[in-house]
Amino acid sequence: MKRPLFLFRLIYQFLLRVTSPFGVLLLRIRFHGLRNVPKKGPYILCCNHRSVIDPYMIAMAVPQHLYFMAKRELFTDHGPLASGFLHAMGAFPVQRDSADIQSLRSAEEILKRGDALAIFPQGRVVFDNTSFRPKAGAALIAARTGMPILPVSIWCKGAWRFGKRVTVRVGQMLPAQIFSGSEKSRKLLHESAKLLADRINHQLEEGHGF
């Protein structure tokens, strides 16, 4: 998957940096652990999924362009303009609940050229505080590419709605060695996915606390 044109990457950064101060205030977002965010990639950012605006909240915390893996329906169900905009910003589709080889290759290309990949491993929005239970795709990509995972959590009390206080917490990077060999063993892959889940669930347990 090629990088978006320079113009679109410039638009991404311009819109994000101009709107971020207002977004933080209007959405009542508090960030913790921003010191853990690398200034540049490659790495895989993994986060639980609480609402449709999660990509925006995460992007505010990351200085570089994030390339989001997004469900295919966002590209097919909302018309060509929406699909074109998503592609222009660097998002790419994944077919959920299937072995989508093309999306896997796109993810690997993004990481190999030194960019940051963002994934919501749950595969869909979870509106309550149910424990984070990721699918194994993120751990598999980390194992195949030898890239670390940055665990991020989004927490609010109950279902998210506009005006509710939100905490975005960035944890310490999980080194690539943790996921090594998982692409060759279903057991290791399951253990790697569980380790990622445990880390993000631990962050979620902190709630709004410091």
TrEMBL record:
SMART domains in UniProt: PlsC
Protein name: 1-acyl-sn-glycerol-3-phosphate acyltransferase
InterPro entries for the chain: Plipid/glycerol_acylTrfase
Pfam families associated with the record: Acyltransferase (PF01553)
GO molecular function: 1-acylglycerol-3-phosphate O-acyltransferase activity
GO biological process terms held by the UniProt record: phosphatidic acid biosynthetic process
Keyword set, alphabetical order: Acyltransferase, Transferase
Domain Phospholipid/glycerol acyltransferase: 43-157
Species in which this protein is naturally found: Caproicibacterium amylolyticum
Tree of life domain: Bacteria
